[in-house]
Amino acid sequence: MTGTVYKSTGSWYTVKTMSGKFYDCRIKGRFRLQGIKSTNPIAVGDKVQFELETKNNTETGVINRIEERKNYIVRKSVNLSKQTHIIASNIDQVFLLVTIDNPPTFPSFIDRFLVTAEAYSIKTILLFNKIDTYDEETLLEVKYLASIYRQIGYECINISAKTGENIDKVKSLMEDKVSMFAGHSGVGKSTLVNAIEPSLNLKTKEISEQHMQGQHTTTFAEMFDLSFGAKIIDTPGIKGFGVVDMEKEEVGDYFPEFFELKQDCKFNNCLHLKEPKCAVKEALENDEVSYSRYRSYIQILEGEDEHYRTDNWDNE
């Protein structure tokens, strides 16, 4: 039988077949995917093949094959730096939720996420949430940050999951697609999903006053079918986002504004650091490239370990 993984709880997977029936499935023995050292061999969104077995009058499935993925979002596993964690696969688009404070989302986190999405050709839309709670100064910050990403070509939408601002716009972008929602804990993913589809009634929690950070409400990624022909993958709050398996020479290619300038650099293998006649550095000096984006690029080049854990807003 074939189906799609809707939920993973570590050792068990909820799989939905073409006929709409759900089965609890597990993996038999060791399951290694070629070329990926992952803490989770199977991810939500995977298309799998499985066989049914009955034990103690309970019918369950045994997964024996994963179909080839069209894409996936992967990051470094926070506790095991050599391992990776596949957040979800076979995604049409990602909505990355951003909050300026309560909790803060740093540009370096946004950029790491976007670089990974670019590497797997996954469209990302930035949702600036909690717009109803900001004062004038913070709204100016939103406007400035959104202008940086719009200039590069990313769609940015100001939303409020609480008041419903621009929720219909998000829904229309989701129709007939598999969308993943991502962001730090506390940015309002579950509240947004509930605003889009109230019948799901996902758990939400308040921000912890002490640390201005989110409390985990989602512990595993899970896919839901929505009433208007969309599918959504809700994901746990992501701490730091470690970029995986990229050669230094290719990192700049996943910054679209750097990639555009690359042909004007003197050297075709330019890393945009100290090389002479570098078009990216010239653009930076002329304020044509954002300094925060360039700084994120340098941090990724310098190696993850010092930096990617510093955006840590959940202390598990």
Summarize the structure.
This protein is of the alpha/beta class and 316 residues long. Helices cover 24% and strands 24% of the residues.
Strand runs, count: 13
Q: Quick one: overall form?
A: globular
- The structural class is alpha/beta
End-to-end Cα distance = 38 Å
Question: Helix and strand succession?
Answer: EEEEEEEEHEHEHEHEEHHHH
Biggest sheet: strands side by side, in what order? 10-9-8-11-13-12
Low-confidence stretches: 205-218, 305-316
Helix content: 10-25%
Oligomeric category: single chain
Kindly provide the radius of gyration, computed on alpha-carbon positions and rounded to a whole number of angstroms: 20 Å
Strand share of the residues?
15-25%
Q: Averaged pLDDT, please? A: 84
How many strands, what sense, and barrel or not for the largest sheet? 6 strands, mixed
Separate helix tally? 8
Features:
13 strands; alpha/beta; 5-stranded mixed β-barrel; single chain; globular; 6-stranded mixed beta sheet; disordered C terminus; 316 residues
What does this structure look like?
By secondary structure, the chain is of the alpha/beta class. 24% of the residues lie in helices and 24% in strands. It has helices at 107-119, 136-152, 167-174, 189-196, 248-251, 256-261, 279-285, 291-302, and strands spanning 2-8, 12-17, 22-27, 47-55, 58-66, 72-76, 84-89, 93-98, 123-128, 155-158, 178-182, 222-225, 231-234. Helix 1 packs across helix 8 (291-302). The strands form three sheets. It has a six-stranded mixed β-sheet, sandwiched between helices. A five-stranded mixed β-barrel has the order 1-2-3-5-4. The two termini are 38 Å apart.
